[in-house]
Amino acid sequence: MTSRQLRISGIILFLLLGKFSSLLAQENLPDIIKKISPSVVSIITYAQDGKPLAQGSGFFLNQQGDVITNRHVLEGAGRAEIKTASGKIYPLEAILAEDKEGDLIRFSVKVPAQKAVPLSLSKSIPEVGEMVIVIGSPLGLGKIASGGIVSAVRDIPAFGKILQIIASISPGSSGSPVVNMKGEVLGVATLQSVECQNLNFAVSAERINKLKTSKALTAAEWNAKPQKKEVSKAEGLFKKGLSNYLAGD
Predict the structure, then answer these.
(1) Which of 57, 66, 72, 108 is catalytic?
(2) What tens digit of pLDDT does each residue of 143-195 get?
(3) Please, are residues 189 and 135 in contact by the beta-carbon 8 Å criterion?
(4) Which candidate in 42, 108, 168, 174 is catalytic?
(5) What is the CATH number of the domain that holds 137?
């Protein structure tokens, strides 16, 4: 066989392997979604007067009932509760840790250990082009999965890494886990571009490991902190600026 034929054979083999890998990944998607879904929860918040306030998504971090979501999901809430994949509802017991800049928060619920199915955090940063899955509860429609890829991994000065993903993220999906094809959490869905719905961002899972536990507070106590109004305004400007920056605007 000539060198030219060898090159052609190599190219064909490369293309076939790429096609096979893609098909294999697609075939594994249903299994991965089934594996992840029990770990994802809907989060419903209520105002002080008891009226529904907002909705988001989150996921179990451990069997003790700790949940991770976006910090903004709980802003303004007098109380909150989660709804598991089985339809069981558990009230938020205490807020344990928060990351203001990263828009992350960790809270606990009293749930039987066998009902809290935790997701593991990836120890590595994803590569550009890596396939990902986002599972959340947009607009209260139950668990909805969206597939896509990592389009960029950006290192923001004084912030850290943030993932840019091509996957649909709708209102109500804030706090959804972004997982790889092993079912490991790569990040937490947090920002999206209004003009371009497929341009979405996730805070890297490495920030979850850096969450520092503080005094446990109820949702009402946490929202009653005096600096809340000033912080919210600053955070709103920060998120808007970060989203525009990542979008190249």
Answers:
(1) 72
(2) 788 888 999 998 887 778 889 998 877 777 889 999 999 999 999 998 665 55
(3) no
(4) 174
(5) 2.40.10.120
